[in-house]
């Protein structure tokens, strides 16, 4: 009965995400470019950043530590990873961007598929390939906007065909692993529904602007589900009280993030391409430690 109720909750939440996605797409009809960009940044900087602002609490929960100096040590480690990421981008931008895409792909795939699969090396490949399908579907649909940003960061001028080849390869490996698990009876997932979700993403990525398309996926399909999972892990259930507790413990770290980003936006708001590049640096810096934390949470 619990399993049946859980599946009903998943189906209900999936329906909500579909409705929210097309509602967001419909809203873009009534927005000009500046209003759409403003709303995109607002969603990314609120829900998007907030879902990664409680990592220190999650580290404490998964480690079982209750020492008074725990948060100081964890904070120093967390900031060190961010600083190393910034240095990585400064000195090795091509490797850093590639690693960011791979790490983010794995993170997106893990969030979506961890509840359906057992932990294994093949599962890590499966998660990464699914995330790369998402990324390179977006890159291919938005090639004219993505290529200049990648060129600005790395100096490499990619073409739409490069995104398409990577997309096709990632999708092929993803499906091969799925059918292997299906044959071994190690997975029970409605793949028709999952392919329908990819079709929805294609429609969004092809129709919306780059930043709006990314924010729709990042917030509705990744950040909000992740936030719900973290709240359930920390407090045992989803309720008004547990969500308030989550936001309360996340707020101070979110504020520090917003102060830095507000300064960047003030300096570069009239140069959208440059600001998008800086936004990628910032997201990469907070993504790497967040991926480690969420991987630990899922294993526990």
TrEMBL record:
It is an enzyme of class 1 (oxidoreductase). InterPro entries: Blh_diox (IPR022270). The keyword Cell division does not apply. The keyword Kinase does not apply. Keywords: Cell membrane, Dioxygenase, Iron, Membrane, Metal-binding, Oxidoreductase, Transmembrane, Transmembrane helix. It catalyses: all-trans-beta-carotene + O2 = 2 all-trans-retinal. Its cofactor is Fe(2+). Coiled coil: none annotated. Its main location: membrane. Catalyzes the cleavage of beta-carotene at its central double bond (15,15') to yield two molecules of all-trans-retinal. NCBIfam families: blh_monoox. Belongs to the Brp/Blh beta-carotene diooxygenase family. This is Probable beta-carotene 15,15'-dioxygenase. It comes from Muriicola marianensis.
